[in-house]
Amino acid sequence: MPITFNVISRKNPMSPSDPPKFYADIVGNGQTTLDDLAKYASTISTVSKADILAVLESTFSKIADDVADGKIVYVGEYFTLQAGGSSIGKETEAEVNASCITTLKTIFRPGKLIKDAMKLAEVKKK
């Protein structure tokens, strides 16, 4: 199934008097759940769906804990996750403390397998 997009118009905030330009906006097309992953894995292996779900749940729980502990989590050639964030700037190094951090987020970096899949992905207008 191809990646789909809608066409949207956007004005340039730096030049509001210019006419808008049109852009492709990628849209989600369905979803895949943990249950779907386990069901698929059970059809191509001898392991039951329940066993696969147990392994996936414990694996993703460990990934979440490790990212929250500040570790960089490498998931083979699939992806890497780590914590990132934004903070308020201060005049001196001594003024910077944990309360300066305004947002925490998860940084996702696709690995080789996901990058290669995206290179081969088909894209079509919705």
UniProtKB/TrEMBL annotation:
All residue ranges annotated as the HU domain in the record: 1-125
Alphabetically ordered keywords of this record: DNA-binding
Organism domain of life: Bacteria
GO MF entry, a single one: DNA binding
Entries under SUPFAM superfamilies matching the protein: IHF-like DNA-binding proteins
Pfam families associated with the record: HU-HIG
Protein name: DNA-binding protein, histone-like, putative
Organism of this sequence: Chryseobacterium taeanense
Lineage of producing organism: Bacteria, Pseudomonadati, Bacteroidota, Flavobacteriia, Flavobacteriales
